[in-house]
Design brief:
Helix content is 35%, strand content 20%. The protein is an alpha+beta fold and 136 residues long. The protein has a three-stranded antiparallel β-sheet with strand order 1-5-4, covered by helices on one side. A two-stranded antiparallel sheet has the order 2-3. A hairpin with a 4-residue loop joins β2 and β3. α3 runs antiparallel to α4. The longest helix is centred in the C-terminal third of the chain and has 18 residues. The termini are far apart.
Length: 136
């Protein structure tokens, strides 16, 4: 039985799951907190003609359409250290949300931009393509 969704989960069920893990491992909250390192990230949105062009699976972490988008995202992600990126359609507007994280903020910003360009190109982007991140 699935109790929580790790990507967009329910806070109450997530809290109960964490409490169970802490008890089973005999960990304190400090132990739990020290086991996690937050990576720099960036969230962008890309205007598209139809948000339903993006279909996802694996708790919205993998794009199943348009064809070729996930492969392009995976190839792009592989260029960055400790990185990941995923896209999902907005539930309320014709935009696609792009999430990216990497080992530093500059890389996270660039990865988000690179994936946003792919979304604009492959998923029916509207208007000007995404703007490159400002150099630091």
């Amino acid at each position: 039985m699935d109790v929580c969704n790790q990507t967009v989960g329910d806070a109450i069920s997530d809290m109960l799951l964490v409490e169970s893990i802490l008890e089973a491992r005999l960990w304190s909250l400090e132990d739990w907190n020290s086991a996690y390192t937050d990576l720099p990230n960036r969230l962008l949105k890309v205007k598209v003609e139809d948000r339903n062009a993006i279909q996802t699976t694996d708790s919205e972490r993998k794009a199943t359409s348009p064809v070729g988008l996930q492969m392009a995202i995976d190839t792009t992600v592989a260029k960055y250290s400790k990185s990941r990126s995923f896209v999902r359609p907005s539930g309320t507007e014709d935009v696609v949300r792009v999430y990216a994280e990497a080992d530093n903020q500059t890389s996270a910003d660039q990865l988000a931009y690179d994936v946003a360009v792919l979304v604009h190109k492959l998923a029916g982007g509207v208007g000007d393509p995404p703007t490159p991140p400002m150099s630091s």
